[in-house]
Amino acid sequence: MAGASAMCRTLLRGLWAGCRVFPMSSKVNTAQIQVTKPDDVRNVVLIGNAGSGKTSLFEQLLRARVVGYRGEKDDPERLSQLYLASLVTGDVLVNLLDAPGHPDFVGELRAGIRAADAAIFVVAADGIDGMAQTLWEECRDAGLPRVIALTKLDAAHSDFDTIVEQLKDAFGEGVLPTHVPVGSGAAIAGTVGVLSKRFRDYSGGGEPTLTEGDEAHVDLIEAHRGALIEGLIQEADDAELMESYLEGEIPDRDYLLDDLMKATAHANLFPVVPVVATSGLGTEELLSLIEHGFPTPSLHPNPDFTTLAGQNAGPAPTDPAAPLVAQVIRTTTDPFAGRLSMVRIFSGTIKTDDVVHVSGHRGHFGKADGAHPDHDDEEKIGLIQQAVGTELKPKNSAIAGEIVMLPKLATAETGDTLTSRERAGVVPNWTMPEPLLPLAIKAATRNDEDKLSGALQRLAVEDTTVRLAHGAEDQLVLWTTGQAHADLLLNRLRDRYGVNVVQEDVKIALRETFTGKTTAQGRHVKQSGGHGQYAVCSIEVEPLPRGGGFEFVDKVVGGAVPRQFIPSVEKGVRSQMDKGVIAGYPMVDVKVTLFDGKAHSVDSSDMAFQLAGSLALKEAASDKGIVALLEPIDLVTITVGEEFMGAVMTDISGRRGQMLGSDSEGHKVIIRARIPQLELSRYAIDLRGLAHGTGTFSREFDGYEMLPGNLVEKLVKKDEPAKK
After folding, report:
1. Residue from 540, 537, 538 nearest 517 by CA
2. Which of 251, 453, 504, 704 to pair with 418, CA 20 to 30 A apart?
3. pLDDT (tens digit, 9 = 90+) per residue, 87-119?
């Protein structure tokens, strides 16, 4: 409770800072500030969907405070990764994190949420779509304090009051403007504070001026002041105060601001600040709020710390003198420079030449991953780099609350924990999105093949959302989060690592099986001088229940097949089952009974009976319709908004899916169905189209079922040339 109160006081000062007359902060060279305590730092992530104006606002904030900043050069990966830049406003260092807004890169977004202590949530005035709602839920689930930056208000026909009502419908009644735009469309001149009644004028083209409001702004203020005060009184849960307010008495300003800070800190109230990127309107309001109102690292709760023995020790203190606890937020690799790790320090101090313990223990939290096995290593800290604007500059040490870059950590991966050797442990990873879009690739040339393995390993290190797997027929498959993610990975392979690959159709692991009982004889007789080859075996083949595997039964009597050759027949049958008999797919759920055969005293051998067993199984499959194909079926769980339920269920039917049921969870519906894997190759893309970018799903293998006859013929004909 003491921390919450401190957070409230800090936020109180911040929101009132936008109301008091402060001298405009001049541009400062970020290198001039020395961080000496966590309260000198603010870690802020900008969140918004693609097209919201988020990156433009990010650039405006930097221009307002970084000497000589003219904008970042175009980077093809700029919009797909978490981006760090720093500035100084007043007496604090602000680490700005620009998180991607595309749904394919939600893992980077969640990394930004882990690194930050508060968020600027960017929403465009031209509409609140489903993706914005999804991003809001990500912040809500993390309990992240948010201020809403409402952009593109200079667009024609935009109406601030109407948009605020839309925001309330989407995000709740806690959305309340603390600043109101003066003017509309291209004629917006500035903002006026709802509580302070002061006017900040951006119309001059240079740094804005701050003056006392005049009578012309009264109507603008009063349109929102009452709702803001009532919301604050409700947050205080004071019936007596509410009664006095209804009788016309305005509560004490400091009391209201204290409640405002409390509500904001607890993510119950979300101040709205109007923003226009072309003029910089809203920039000073946001910077003032960041400096004086956003929670410091010491006020924002750290993740729990778990010892290597598995004991939860609770959150590490945000204390530079405490043992080190830090986490790798993201990792980039370069073919020449090696790894560069973005690290958030939760506790302690990192110094040049320190030896730290690197822990990667997803298994502690039930999230073990074959591509990222648990590991413990020790590494020496070399160069420590800090963002200065968009540049990286060296420093000797970094303390709790800072975000720094550490080059050439050889073993540390995204999500790993850095601790002192004396107190090794881990903090949990944020929830990584499950990659559900398969991308089958192969090296374009022999030279590319030599480089492909190493390049893929580097991709897996820097991007924890990619999964490498070997699919059907040992096909190399990259599991990605969507088409944009897949395109990004292909570009990185080509441009960063010089590896060209060819895309293939993803092969599905079909299976063959017998549908009825039949008998057959396998005869391998060959005489070509010297020892010949002689083996004859008679078998009965019948199907087993689904999941039955393979069963071999010996019913030979009278020594028709010598005992030493019976295992040879079984080996030959198994070998042919692995190859398939009609389309080249492995055979499953079959019982084979050996009941007769013939042997030669000289020419029979192990190899001859293996070949006879293989031929017998192929002969048994010669009857038309006796062998069928099985397709893998996945249990799919889909989460979509109620309004998309009908479209999704219709689509499931079109994919030959079997509905299992559905449940409601708020405004969302959870649908369960069994769907063939053949119909799911591009479902990660298709579902987004059906649910306007808001649908999610998971899948797990649920067994095999018969493939319809029309599809069997299609697949057999397609594969015949390749199998011959």
Report:
1. 540
2. 453
3. 999 889 999 999 998 889 999 999 999 999 999
Q: Residue 197: is its pLDDT beyond 90? A: no
DSSP 278: T
Task: Give me the half-sphere count of Cα atoms (radius 13 Å) on the Cβ side of residue 55.
Answer: 18
- C-alpha 592: how far from chain center: 48
CB-based contacts of 457, cutoff 8 Å, min separation 6? none
Same fold across 438-504 and 631-723: yes
Architecture field, domain 511-625: 2-Layer Sandwich (3.30)
Fold of 631-723: Alpha-Beta Plaits (3.30.70)
- Classified as helix, coil or strand, 226 is helix
- 192 DSSP assignment: E
Q: How far apart are CA 231 and CA 258, in angstroms?
A: 13
Of all residues in the chain, the percent with pLDDT exceeding 70 is 87
Q: Which residues of 413-436 are buried (b: 16+ CB within 10 A; e: fewer)?
A: bbbbbbbbeebbbbbbbbebbebb
Choosing among 3.40.50.1000, 3.30.420.10, 3.40.50.300, 3.40.30.10, the CATH entry for 2-292 is 3.40.50.300
Q: What is the pLDDT of residues 40-74, one digit of tens each?
A: 999 999 999 888 889 899 999 998 888 878 776 56
Angle at 547 between CA 546 and CA 551, to 5 degrees: 100
